[in-house]
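Recall that a protein's primary structure is simply its ordered list of amino acids. Everything else, from secondary elements to tertiary packing, is in principle encoded there. The following example makes that idea concrete.
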Amino acid sequence: MLQQELKELFDAMPQMVKDKLQPVMDDLLERASEHDEHAASDPDYYNEERELIMKEVHKVKYLNDQWQLINAKKNN
């Protein structure tokens, strides 16, 4: 579930962002996969893990937004 959400988010990002952040995105997708697989067995631990994953996702989204702004200024 979380992995699919992140995959859709990352797939929608421009190729430039993917090229720069692919190792980070791959790591987040792997962690999300583990989260999806084991969340029911230890909800407290995996709720914390989800929060940590989402903090990293917000950083990726921020970088994506910044690169998009930079590119928009270059194109104007």
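The CA atoms of residues 2 and 43 lie 14 Å apart. Residues 22-36+43-76 form one domain.
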